[in-house]
Amino acid sequence: MRPTCNSSLIQAPFLLENCTKEFKELGRPKKPMSSYFLFTQSRKEVFKGKALKEFQDQIKKEWVKLPATEKAKFEKQASELMVKYKKDLEAWELKMISIGRTDLVRNKPLREKKQKAVKKQ
Question: The dihedral of CA 31, 37, 38, 44: what is its sign?
Answer without folding.
Answer: negative
